[in-house]
Write a structure and sequence with these properties.
alpha+beta, Nuclear Transport Factor 2, Chain: A
Length: 149
């Protein structure tokens, strides 16, 4: 993957996401999203808007995600014009040592806003099911992604 200045800025936003999570700073986390962002969790919950994202993460950091860290690995960044990027990656939350294999596959859509800053306009998080993938590939080899062949 070629690191252009825009790719470096987009990567920086995702690094800031990880850092804000590590501090359990819901406001800083939310500031990385557009005002009208959408956020879909791996369980299928849809949050709409920055305030909804901030409020939900404040509650999550105090309960289910208390003490967790966020791991993120960028697989691909594609630009669709000068002000829009789609990032595919792997991620997951953890306590203690960072896991070798990340359990979620993620898509971020980022836009460059009028102030010149890149922010996340949409996020989708899906739990990987490697056993189901493996079985599916075995019985229907035609569905194996080209990147796995």
């Amino acid at each position: 993957m070629t690191i252009t200045p825009d790719a470096a800025e987009v990567t920086s936003v995702l690094n800031e996401i990880v850092a804000a999570w590590g501090r359990h700073d819901a406001e800083a986390y939310g500031d990385l999203f557009t005002e009208d962002a959408t956020y879909i969790t791996f369980v299928g919950t849809l949050y709409k808007g920055r305030r909804d994202i901030v409020d939900s993460h404040r509650a999550l950091f105090a309960t289910f995600l208390k003490g967790t860290k966020l791991a993120d690995e960028i697989l691909d960044i594609r630009f669709h014009g000068p002000d829009m990027a789609v990032v595919n990656g792997r991620g997951g939350t953890y306590k203690g040592k960072r896991p070798h294999k990340l359990s979620k596959i993620q898509t971020y859509t980022l836009v460059r806003q009028d102030d010149g800053k890149w922010r996340i306009a949409a996020f989708h998080n899906a739990k990987r099911k490697p056993l189901m993938e493996s079985l599916s590939y075995r019985f229907a080899p035609g569905i194996i992604p080209a990147s796995h062949k």
